[in-house]
Specification:
By secondary structure, this protein is mainly alpha-helical. It contains seven helices and two strands, in the order H-H-H-H-H-H-E-E-H. Helix 2 packs across helix 3, helix 2 packs antiparallel against helix 6 and helix 3 packs across helix 4.
Length: about 220
């Protein structure tokens, strides 16, 4: 099991980022539909909610890859605001203030909201706070996971590029061998080209004949 996790570590991490993104996107679509349904037919409300989710993912993707321009952040702010409104409105509509669960929630969180000036006996205020907490956090979770997913993809690409460059440099350093008559013969690399000196002149290279004459003189002595 541990070996399988090590081999598939990258895929597991990607799946962990994608699962909350897809789950929250599906839930947000249904939530935003209820808000768009106030002023549109149900079919248009579905189309608009799907378009908002796609626009949100596109905006955060463009911002993560550092696309310049105010338009990217403008679209991001607009679609995030629509997600907040749709999710909060759906949660507010579904809360039943007469239920036992809501009464227990009000009793539990009453002292906390009293500290910020909210009346514990005001059920409408308690309903608003609950809708804000339940619906407002969903877009933040989805967009944050999408940002992590894109950043992890960038890190993965950088690491793979470095690995390819290291392998290429190792292959260049290894000697090239050929098989001749059943034996491996190492191929000698050609000498590096002669570069001019600082003054621009090439170093003096003595011919082979001149070198041989000098060797004969030395041997004769």
């Amino acid at each position: 099991m541990i070996e399988w996790i090590k081999r598939n570590k990258e895929g597991i991490i990607r799946a962990m980022f994608l699962i909350p993104i897809l789950s929250v996107a599906t839930i947000s679509i249904s939530h935003v539909v209820s808000w768009y349904d106030l002023a549109n037919p149900i079919s248009w409300a579905v189309y608009l909610s799907v378009a908002v989710e796609i626009a949100a993912m596109s905006a955060i993707a463009a911002a993560s890859v550092k696309v310049k321009g105010f338009s990217v952040w403008f679209v991001f702010i607009i679609v995030t605001l629509i997600q907040f409104i749709g999710n909060i409105f759906f949660c507010y509509s579904e809360i039943d203030i007469t239920s036992t669960s809501f009464k227990n929630w009000s009793e539990l969180t009453g002292p906390v909201f009293e500290m910020i000036g909210s009346d514990i006996a005001d059920t409408i205020a308690q309903r608003r706070w609950l809708a804000l907490l339940e619906g407002g956090l969903l877009p933040l979770i989805s967009l944050t996971c999408l940002h992590f997913f894109i950043k992890y993809g960038e890190i993965d690409n950088i690491e793979s590029t470095k690995q390819v460059e290291e392998e290429a440099s190792i292959e260049e350093e290894l000697p090239v061998t050929e098989v001749i008559n059943g034996e491996q013969v190492e191929e000698v690399k050609p000498p590096a080209p002669i570069k001019p000196s600082v003054g621009g002149a090439f170093p003096k290279i003595e011919r082979r004949s001149e070198l041989s004459e000098k060797m004969k003189k030395i041997q004769g002595k």
